[in-house]
Write a structure and sequence with these properties.
By secondary structure, this protein is of the alpha/beta class. The chain has twelve helices and twelve strands. Strand 2, helix 3 and strand 3 form a beta-alpha-beta unit.
Length: 316
Amino acid sequence: MNTIGLGTAAIGRPIYINIRHEKPRVDLSLAAFRKNGIMLLDDAYENGIRFFDASPGYGLAESLLMEWLQQKNDPDIIVATKWGYSYVADFNVNAKVHEIKEHSLEKLNEQWEFSRKLLPNLKIYQIHSATLDTGVLDNKTVLQRLYQIKKEYNIIIGLTTTGVNQVEVLKKAVNIEVENELLFGSFQSTYNIMEQSILPLKDILLGTGRQLIIKESLANGRLIPNTSFKEHNGLYNYITKLADKYDVGADAIAIRFCIDSFPDAVSLSGASSVDQLQSNLAATTFKLEEGEVELLSSYKVEPLLYWDERKQLSWQ
């Protein structure tokens, strides 16, 4: 399996929290979105990607995958999806609220009824953005229901993490048991050149056959050289130097850093176009030298600063 998977947020809804480095789409109609989404899924498949990550919070993403999977009929395709977020903006780019988070048993059952249509390719079912605040990891009724889904459908139960407390969440989750059996077999977490807090957990996250999925490898666009964050100019200069050396884009350098840090993980591309995906996939054409990985690692920032900076980004 390709070490790069495709995250489908960008093909399921018109805007996301990031720094935009390309011209915004002109046609935001549902028809145009569906056409672009299917095209990108096809291109990903033709380039060896077999891992696709979705969520009800990603607008059309799950329904696009369902439509596309009917054309493919390939048991090697692995789909991971989530529950806990609902997309509520209805393709209105000016909406004040784009998504709502709810970690209740009712929301789990409601979203599972739709997401289960992704079977048999659906292999990983995740709590979307598990945090200590929602109490989902202490909700025995929810955990028991996830265990039932795991056993009945032979599916891996996972969770995704975000925010300054993601390490604390992971440390709690790795030991959670239901009926004397570890519940979580997959963890999807933020990791990139700037945010490296999960690195000390490497052996735990990948131990006993567990799956690690890396998201936000481009730090929501902040790792692409830009003028919005001049405090990172030293890093941007070095990324540009490496990009010139390996004849790839800055995005490929950032993704390659994740691959070289966690060779057994799946690093997600969040591409919204074929051109972006091709640029991301260039990360598989070279390997960073050990000294280059070490120097890139030195540009990490404290999690509190990283996540505070992320909060400043807008939906666009």
